[in-house]
Specification:
By secondary structure, this protein is mainly β. Helices cover 11% and strands 37% of the residues. The chain folds into 5 domains: 194 residues, Galactose-binding domain-like (Jelly Rolls); 76 residues, Immunoglobulin-like (Sandwich), CATH 2.60.40; 268 residues, TIM Barrel (Alpha-Beta Barrel); 102 residues, Immunoglobulin-like (Sandwich); 269 residues, Distorted Sandwich (Beta-galactosidase, Chain A, domain 5). The structure holds 1-methylethyl 1-thio-beta-D-galactopyranoside. GO terms for molecular function: hydrolase activity.
Length: 966
């Protein structure tokens, strides 16, 4: 009999990890022992406080007939009970550890179940919870089993003695806030509930308890050594390797090693007297050697992402298909590593990482970031009372996940400051598992860790670190470096990642990084499309800082992911001496006959890759074929002869060479593009328009070739039959999250400065409309109210009778201390303009420092599809290097190439919008033709654009040629 009182909730505010649970052990999905999933519809009752209801609901016979139903796994706040809260690091309750507020939403969950008819009557049973946020108390058939904390960690209870064939009553009380909330202050939604599986496991007599698979690889001999330590004696068999040994015995045989690139797994079985557990064994050895992280003797370069678990409707209750989708998307975008920010993921995710091949930094469920607000005073990680809870978390992670070859690094947690508790965790982990390395970014001196790790360090500092000139403790200077977070993918961006990648590749000590982050945590919402912080009336919140991923909430890749895929591609294809950015430079005859292919994999050769070449004229392929490339070993490169280019006469010509999967693989179909390179043969011919026509004045209009203008204002009205509205200089873009930057970032926040200066409300003063024999010249001054700065802007219109050319000359006046957001012209076309064709960069969006993936070619799209649906609307959708574009009956050529965008709302409307649903298409298609765009950077949490991507206010001239499409 358990004693109950309505106030017996002291455990909620107890710093201890809990009582009653079994010791942690290795997790496995299946064995030949029976298991019963208790996922499904449960009865549910929400109370406003922890002790509002007594616990009689746990008694057999309690009638919950009038309770609501809730899906388990799930979060109640996403199922109509209460609402989610988003804060980055602020605790959404008064900081007074370990106390929590009286208002403590508490969900009582009830499920009645029968055992299957064939459930064995012998042996015991274990009830396993894979994840409950944040604190739960459990009863089975009226017996109090105990309570636990550690939201993203498993907890098991022995229940065999309590089970009945039918009518078992499982009662779980879940409190949203508990002492553990102080340890779980990750930058994400607060989402209470039983959000991972609940399973009843039969435990036969003589079953397997805990076991540790040690499978190392000796790269000098090509042999693997296997030893399975097991709490219960048994045998280990691996048929493919003829292994049949006792547990605890080690055996060495020739094997194929496991790497993220070549994820060779061997199926095996651990058989104890009472149970057979399938094993998936990957042989690999992780060491710190010569100041480098090496796997199987080779230093690795992490091309990683930080992955939170996210689903726009289910929150962190991820189904297997979603986990698989994440892994496939990562593999298909050349990502080779995941940091499981900031907690151990659902264990099935790690099984997928083993099978498909991803390096994993498995991070403990620990973050106390909110204490930064009080200079880290009272931080639980530096308070011995909390150390048992920290050690419990470390053990639950390591014991659960220790048999995954994909896990190469343990991370103590995130943003928890420093303290004795962290040291205790690191010591325990090092002692328990010497076969992996330990990471923790907050340990800047690397006292407890095996690598120097930072987040959002600027390029310049990363370069210094690469060169070993960064100072720091003796220990940290000897360690390899990773950026556990960089490239903040909030909204449009991240910019500058290609520049980081070049540094990683240049300096051995820099072993890569992990983009922040994988997916936007937007919540599907009828009102807004996707909701973010503040949309649920939260008292404190951090807005759309929760939407900073490479994927949109619905898992559609954002341009940031496409860029990242290109930046980290494992095969580099370069035209001799002609990197993409130098396109158009005359390199002389003969230099173009070869392509250099470099294998940038760490382990795989190129035997799985087929190469294809295409010779293109004005973006159209005129000839193509396969390119025989040797199966280069990792790190090797070869100069491969290209075929003789066909004689095509005039036009802009280039080679495009693609690296494709030669056959279907586990993660991508045959023909999937892994990498590509493009390099010019001849530059674009000049856009020539003879100045033949003279402008003519008559009847309120000026005509010039196909165009007509307002004679008073000099404004362009039409080109042939195409009406053109409001053509004028435009410098404004709806600031991106990265333009606005974060208050704590040191670079100037231009998004705010632009607005302060008034660039969003520029006035256009008309100074003169001049007609001469060969041109119409319109002189203006473009400037914001209240400021002295301005842009003297002259539009010079000429025509050969058919085509209309405008040359725009811009001369800054006054003291311009900020770069310009954009510089070009904008105008309106009829809303009927829907289809767009262009020759230039595509198919997707690009900006000066996010343009690696922009491929020069002929593209087609629609105005609607040109736009990128950032969850918080902001500047988007530009196409780079556009030679010409056609839409709405108009052809536009640029000299030089230009940035093209078109949308059904103005930049000002885009700027005003807070959610996608605020963007209402108008009658006009607004087109921007930009000579320049300011870089993007990643200042929403990192550096602004590098200086070379600045759009400085300086005297500039650029031209466009308009003609009607016949
Ligand atoms: C860093 C956090 O580790 C991560 O959880 C996330 O909040 C990210 O920033 C920003 O999106 S902490 C950083 C503010 C120093």
């Amino acid at each position: 009999m358990s004693f109950r009182t309505t106030t017996a909730v002291d455990y909620v505010e107890d710093v201890s990890p809990g009582t009653g649970a079994l010791p942690p052990r290795a997790w496995y999905a299946t064995s030949d022992a029976m298991a019963l999933s208790l996922n499904g519809d449960w009865r549910f009752r929400l109370s406003a406080t922890a002790d509002a209801e007594d616990d009689s609901f746990a008694d057999p016979g309690f009638d919950a007939g009038d309770w609501a139903e809730i899906a388990v796994p799930g979060h109640w706040v996403l199922q109509g009970h209460g609402s989610p809260i988003y804060t980055n690091h602020l605790y959404p309750f008064p900081v007074d550890p370990p106390r929590v507020p009286t208002e403590n939403p508490t969900g009582d969950h009830l499920r009645v179940f029968d055992l299957p008819a064939d459930w064995p009557s012998d042996g015991g049973a274990v009830l396993r919870f894979d994840g409950v946020e944040s604190c739960a108390r459990v009863w089975l058939n009226g017996t109090d089993l105990g309570e636990f904390k550690g939201s993203r960690l498993p907890h098991e209870f022995a229940v065999g003695h309590l089970l009945k064939p039918g009518g078992n009553v499982l009662a779980v009380r879940v409190h949203q806030w508990s002492a553990a909330s102080y340890l779980e202050d990750q930058d994400q939604w607060w989402l209470p509930g039983i959000f991972r599986d609940v399973t009843l496991l039969h435990r036969p007599a003589g079953c397997v308890l805990d076991f540790f698979v040690h499978a190392s690889y000796d790269h000098t001999s090509g042999e693997g050594t296997l030893k399975v330590e097991s709490d219960v004696d048994g045998r280990v068999t691996v048929p493919a390797l003829d292994i049949d040994v006792a547990t605890g015995e080690s055996v060495t045989v020739p094997v194929e090693p496991w790497t993220a690139e070549t994820p060779r797994l061997y199926d095996g079985v651990l058989a104890s007297e009472g149970e057979r557990v399938p094993l998936r064994i990957g042989f690999r050895t992780v060491v710190l050697e010569d100041g480098l992280i090496k796997v199987n003797g080779t230093p690795v370069l992490f091309k990683g992402v930080n992955r939170h678990e996210w689903h726009p409707e289910k929150g962190r209750a991820l189904d297997p298909e979603t986990m698989r989708a994440d892994v496939l998307l990562m593999k298909r975008h050349n990502i080779n590593a995941v940091r499981t920010s900031h907690y151990p993921p659902h264990p099935a995710f790690l099984e997928l990482c083993d099978a498909y091949g991803l390096w994993v930094i498995d991070e403990c469920d620990l973050e106390t970031h909110g204490f930064v607000e009080q200079a880290w005073r009272d931080n639980p990680v530096d308070d011995d009372r909390w150390t048992p809870a920290l050690l419990d978390r470390a053990a639950r992670m390591v014991e659960r996940d220790k048999n995954h070859p994909s896990v190469v690094i343990w991370s103590l947690g995130n943003e928890a400051g420093t303290g004795r508790g962290l040291t205790a965790m690191a010591e325990w982990i090092h002692g328990r598992d010497a076969s992996r390395l330990v990471h923790y970014e907050g340990d800047i001196n690397c006292r407890d860790t095996d690598m120097y790790s930072r987040m959002y360090a600027f390029h310049e500092e990363v370069e210094r670190i690469g060169r070993g000139l960064d100072g720091g403790t003796l220990k940290s200077r000897e360690l390899p470096f990773i950026l556990c977070e960089y490239g903040h993918a909030m909204g449009n961006g991240p910019g500058g990642i290609a520049d980081y990648q070049r540094l990683f590749e240049r300096y051995d000590r820099l072993q890569g990084g992990f983009i922040w982050e994988w997916i936007d945590h937007g919540i599907k919402d009828e009102r807004y499309g996707f909701a973010y912080g503040g949309d649920f009336g939260e008292e404190l919140h951090d807005g759309n800082f929760v939407c900073d991923g490479l994927l949109f909430p619905d898992r559609k890749p954002s341009p940031g992911l496409i860029e990242y895929k290109k930046v980290i591609e494992p095969i580099r294809i370069e035209g001799w001496g002609s990197p993409l950015l130098e396109r158009g430079r005359d390199l002389g005859e003969g230099a173009y006959g070869t392509v250099r292919v470099c294998n940038a994999y760490d382990f795989a050769d190129l035997s799985a890759i087929a190469f294809e070449w295409a010779y293109q004229v004005d973006g159209e392929t005129v000839e193509s074929g396969m390119l025989p490339v040797p199966a280069l070993a990792p790190g090797e490169s070869a100069d491969v002869k290209l075929p003789e280019p066909p004689d095509t006469g005039s036009g802009e010509t280039q080679w495009t060479v693609r690296a494709l999967l030669a056959t279907d693989t586990a993660w991508g179909p045959k023909g999937h593009q892994v990498a590509w390179g493009q390099f010019p043969v001849s530059a674009p011919p000049p856009v020539h328009v003879a100045q033949r026509e003279a402008p003519r004045l008559g009847d309120g209009r000026i005509t010039l070739g196909p165009a007509s203008f307002d004679s008073r204002t000099g404004a362009l009205m039409s080109v042939g039959a195409v009406d053109v509205a409001g053509l004028r200089l435009d410098v404004w873009r709806a600031p991106t999250d990265n333009d606005d930057g974060a208050p704590w970032q040191p670079d100037l926040r231009y998004g705010l400065l632009w607005r302060k200066l008034g660039l969003h409300r520029m006035r256009h003063r008309l100074d003169a409309v001049e007609l001469t024999g060969d041109a119409l010249t319109v002189r203006t001054r473009v400037a914001p109210a209240a400021r002295q700065v301005g842009l003297a802007t002259v539009y010079r219109w000429t025509s050969d009778g058919e085509r209309l050319r405008v040359t725009v000359s811009v001369s800054p006046e006054g003291d311009w201390t900020v770069p310009l957001p954009r510089l070009g012209v904008r105008f309106g076309l009829s809303g009927a303009a829907a289809r767009v064709r262009w020759f230039g960069g595509g198919p997707g969006e690009a900006y000066p420092d996010t343009r690696s993936a922009s491929e020069l070619g002929r593209w087609e799209s629609t105005v609607d599809e040109l736009g990128t649906p950032y969850v918080r609307p902001q500047e988007n959708g530009a196409r780079a290097d556009v030679r010409w574009a056609e839409l709405g009956g108009l052809r536009i050529e640029g000299e030089p190439e230009f940035w093209f965008s078109a949308r059904r709302w103005t930049n000002e409307q885009l700027d005003d919008a807070r959610h996608l649903t605020d963007l209402v298409p108008g009658e006009t298609v607004w087109v921007n033709l930009d000579h320049g765009q300011h870089g993007i950077g990643s200042q929403s949490c990192g550096p602004g654009p590098l200086p070379q991507y600045f759009l400085r206010a300086e005297p500039t001239e650029f031209s466009f040629v308009f003609s009607e499409i016949s």
